[in-house]
Design brief:
The protein is an alpha+beta fold and 398 residues long. Helices cover 34% and strands 10% of the residues. It has a 3-stranded antiparallel sheet. A two-stranded antiparallel sheet has the order 1-9. It has a two-stranded antiparallel sheet with strand order 2-8. A hairpin with a 5-residue loop joins strand 5 (259-263) and strand 6. Helix 11 (315-326) packs across helix 12 (328-343). The chain starts with a strand and ends in a 16-residue tail after the last strand. Mean pLDDT is 81; it is low at 1-9, 207-233, 236-242, 366-383 and 389-398.
């Protein structure tokens, strides 16, 4: 059934995002499943970025503002794999998104739809809690590129978590930058069930392009420059289950598989699963379950075998991992909550025109870069369901 939406330029209603934009993005995701991962990676790097025009150090200096530092090595590949495809929709769509919402809101809405779509593809039978649409963020003045040497940012610009590090330092990053507690941190890292890493960008993974866990089309590892190689042999190899599904497979594999650390072809330390070098975790992943901190060497080597390494010294972290490994529904609940906190980073609902869209009668304030508000466009779109893959068998609890 066709849905006709009358769209007022300069304003956004719930149906505009929940139906019209969703249909546009779903069409792109269906033709390129890798884009799902790239968009979710983009929103982490956006919301983890530094505030513009805050020149003195402050706690939790993070904000979703439609900007990333394109020259930062941690953002390698994001422009080509996420920003450019979204720009085609943002600037060229007949729905005129660029004149009706700023890039910060557009990226957040796209990431929300990507997460929901990845969950729909999982066909797990478990429910992803509602992740609503929020409107009213502010884009930085140079969006989409944060020009950190423009004099408008505190320097040095913030760092990202360390994929070679242990739990303590990386948890400190999430605590200090996002205000996350241990549970939120463990839950958001579970998004690593999406995507793959590629040695050409990060030095980690096999030269052929290594999937993360069960996810060849989803989120890349956000702890360093991990990207998806979209064409040719560098795309990587699908792992467990569906390759574009939001599930708890990251924790399941962490708990129930045998991991061995080895030096890869690029000279970096990776953890391979069951002697298969095309299935890789990093120190930051293993550290959720094992005491990497005590055994970590400066070159990334960990001085203990996985089977003999003591558990993470914070037993609550281990308990979260074990709980999520055994309960997909529990993880989806906690992940959705942490994801909402992330995509609203730097904002409070009800303040400075930042609102939660709850009905189509509730329109957002006209945002920056709007055109004549008397202009309107009518769009016809058809709501469709994602093409789901049949999950291969029932997996036992770890």
């Amino acid at each position: 059934m066709a849905i006709v939406c009358n769209l007022t330029v300069g304003q956004i209603g719930l149906d505009d995002l929940d139906t019209v934009l969703r249909n546009e993005l779903q069409s792109e995701f269906d033709s390129d499943r890798d884009l799902i991962a790239s968009v979710v990676r983009l929103i982490f790097h956006d919301c983890a970025g530094q505030r513009e025009d805050v020149l003195t150090p402050i706690a939790r200096n993070s904000v979703c503002d439609g900007c990333i530092e394109l020259d930062d090595k941690h953002n390698t590949g994001i422009e080509e794999l996420a920003i450019d495809p979204l720009e085609d929709i943002y600037n060229d769509s007949p729905n005129q998104w660029q004149s009706r919402m700023n890039r910060a809101d557009f990226w957040a809405a796209a990431a929300t739809i990507a997460v929901q779509y990845a969950h729909a593809l999982s066909n797990s039978g478990d429910a992803l809690p509602n992740i609503p649409f929020f409107i009213g963020r502010e884009s930085c003045s140079t969006s989409p590129d944060a020009e950190v040497n423009s004099g408008r940012y505190h320097l040095p610009y913030k760092t990202f978590p360390n994929e070679n590090g242990g739990w303590l330092a990386n948890f400190a990053w999430f605590r200090d930058n996002f205000g996350f507690n241990a549970q939120q941190t463990v839950a958001i890292i579970g998004a690593h069930t999406l995507g793959r890493m590629h040695s050409a960008f990060s030095g980690h993974g096999s030269g052929r392009g290594t999937p993360w866990v069960g996810g060849s089309d989803e989120l890349t590892h956000d702890l360093d420059a991990f990207c998806i190689q979209r064409n040719g042999s560098g795309r990587g190899t699908p792992w467990v289950g569906g390759s574009d599904e939001l599930t708890h497979d990251f924790y399941r594999d962490l708990v129930r598989r045998d991991w061995t650390q080895q030096v890869n072809e690029q000279g970096f330390y990776d953890w391979i699963r069951d002697n298969n070098a095309r299935r890789v975790f990093l120190n930051s992943d293993i550290a959720l379950l094992k005491d990497v901190d005590t055994n970590l060497q400066s070159d990334g080597r960990v001085n203990c075998l996985f089977s003999q390494c003591a558990s993470n010294r914070d037993q609550t972290v281990v308990d979260f991992v074990l709980s999520y490994a055994g309960d997909n529904q529990l993880w989806l609940i906690d992940f959705a909550s942490a994801f909402i906190d992330m995509i609203t980073m730097g904002y409070t609902v009800g303040e400075n025109n930042f609102i939660l869209l709850q009905s189509d009668d509730q329109l957002s304030p006209v945002q920056q870069n709007t055109v004549d508000p008397t202009t309107s466009t009518t769009t016809t779109s058809t709501t469709s369901e994602p093409t789901r893959r049949t999950r291969r068998g029932n997996r036992e609890n770890p």
